[in-house]
Uu.00g091090.m01.CDS01
Amino acid sequence: MSKERPEPPSGADSPKELVAHVTNNPSDWLLYLRHINGYAAALKEENDFFCLTESDHDNSLQSF
């Protein structure tokens, strides 16, 4: 996959630090959430395309 996983804008060491960073940098976090959502959707689409379920596999074998 050519698309790299987005990294969060902070490497906070505690929940309190994370809350403070999100509170002080909301636009950075909204942008991160958009990017990680797009990344997850791309992974799902790729997996849906390349992965066959067992029933799909069984059905494809029966057609031969």
Remarks:
- DSSP finds three helices and no strands in the chain.
